[in-house]
Amino acid sequence: MNSINNRREFLSNLGMGFGGLAAGAMLAEDGLLKASESHLPSGSHHHRPRAKSVIWVFLSGGYSHLETFDPKPALNKYAGKTYSQTPFPNPVDSPLHKKRFRSVASQEINVRDVYPIIYPMQVGFDYYGENRIGITDWWPHFSSVADDVCFVRNMWTTDNDHAAENQIHTGRHRLDEVQPSVGAWAHYGLGSLNENLPKFVVLGGPTRTNTRDSIGSYYLGPAHAGVPLALDKAQPLPFGVRNGKQTAAEQLQEFKLSRELNELTLAERPGDTQLEARMKSYELAFRMQSSVPEAVDLAKETAETTQLYGLDQDNTRVAGQRLLTARRMVERGVRFVQVFPSAYGTWDSHRDLKKKHSALCATIDKPIAGLIKDLKRRGLLEDTVVVFCTEFGRTPGLEQRSGGTTGRDHHPNGFTIWMAGAGLKRGYVHGETDELGYHALGDAHYVTDLHATVLHLLGLDNRRLVVPGRKRLDIDNGLPIHDIFA
Fold first, then answer.
1. How many whole angstroms separate alpha carbon 7 and alpha carbon 21?
2. Which of 177, 183, 249, 464 could form a disulfide with 336 if both were Cys (CB 3.0 to 4.6 A apart)?
């Protein structure tokens, strides 16, 4: 027994660098965690899938739904008045406020989200596409693909602070137990389309250490967490490049020795799933050191394509590079690509909303439109789902804290996300907020409904993705938004 333990310790400490990382993030095929009976084997589906891959684009900080995809002319008409001075019901008095809202409240002028003085829209808008969908003037490129997009205007969440960045990915308020992220559930439920690349790739994030939950796998195990990649073909993955002092032949011999030693242990302990998984992870890591740099090498793209994404302009280059890389990833079979086009809190416009949002929209407008056009012309939009979201919207009322006169505060009560691609209606608007953009109306959708919708398109029933001993709440599962399915 001691010889076995010593050999295990030797293998664990073997200087392979990225092999350990792969073991921590890439063991899905024969992972340490086996699926429960209610979860079909990895690589199977609960029902016929409509999509193969997901590109999940997240804008950190909370973009204003009112100045992007849910324009409200009533804000201009009643600007400077209080909610009670309009002909509409006062949204603060609505039972929806207490039913959905779980405030970590400010003790200053007002409890956050209920500022009573209406703040006008800071930009004009027009109607686009065959169904005349309202989009503001800060999206000239994106508005040209309105007929390919499905808007969901009645999203809501409960956390009014930026921990909502984790909440939109995990479904849980920050005061509750953490849950696996939506990308981790997709990873857990599906087999690989490319044995040489991670199934769950992260570009540009997580945005900082306390948002790690947004790509985390928690009790599913580290095998299913997102793998952050850098857009540097020389070093895209930490410890993912062979030591410069070691030749390819020497590294290959090292891997062969490792496998032989592992096989000796496996012969002594047949059925050791942990060891089998580790052996497989080393093999995958060996393949990844050539496939990952190739996947992030944008130099192979045409000038026309790089311009389509805005790589030729300073303000759009970062977002463009990440979105173009996302297309390259799904093109090569990656299941779930989570993209952070901008840094933590970038869209948080408590002050100078007009100045900030006009500049920020310009950084993503061309790249995201380029992604939709590029996926469509390559036939990839037929089996890829694009999700474009943020953690919450922004208040219809003027933020007055500390004498504020130019911004909006956080607003979880109603906001807009959009989706495009496989299995979805195109040029369509689902749901609405009230006339002032305060509350999500009707059969509105908590964030896990978005999760359930994406997983459904991938052929997974969110309610059958369970782990023995881990009881999920009903709200954790959510329900697919069937109205938006084509």
1. 19
2. 183
Task: Judge if 276 and 219 occupy the same domain.
Answer: no
List pLDDT tens digits, range 389-419.
999 999 999 999 889 999 999 999 999 999 9
Q: Please say whether the beta carbons of 68 and 392 come within 8 A.
A: no
| Residue 238 domain-assigned (yes or no) | no
Helix (H) or strand (E) holding 339: strand 336-339
d(CA 73, CA 83): 15
Query: Which tokens in the block code for residue 346?
Result: 């970038």
Specify whether 314 is located in the same domain as 393.
Answer: yes
The widest CA-to-CA distance across the chain, in whole angstroms, is 80
β partners of residue 430: 152
- In the predicted model, residues of the chain with pLDDT beneath 70 are 1-43, 102-113, 238-244, 251, 273-286
Decide if 241 is inside a domain: no
Q: Are residues 147 and 263 in the same domain?
A: no
**Number of domains forming the structure of the chain:** 2
Angular region, 290: left φ>0, alpha ψ -120 to 50, beta rest: alpha
For the chain, how big is the Rg over CA atoms in Å? 24
Q: Work out the burial of residue 98: count CB atoms within 10 Å of its CB; fewer than 13 is exposed, 13-18 middle, 19 or more buried.
A: exposed
Residue with tokens 């944008």: 298
d(C-alpha 373, C-alpha 377), whole Å: 6
- CATH number of the domain bearing residue 355: 3.40.720
And the tokens for 381?
């939009």
Q: Are 276 and 307 within one domain?
A: no
Which helix (DSSP H) or strand (DSSP E) does residue 327 occupy? helix 317-331
* pTM for this model (two decimals): 0.87
Angle between helices 317-331 and 353-377 (to 10 degrees): 30
Whether residue 41 lies inside any domain: the answer is no
Burial bucket for residue 108 (CB in 10 Å: 0-12, 13-18, 19+): exposed
To which residue do tokens 């890829």 refer? 384
Domain that holds residue 438: 46-231+299-484
Same domain, 306 and 290: no
In contact, 463 and 477? CB cutoff 8 Å: yes
Q: Supply the pLDDT for residue 36.
A: 38
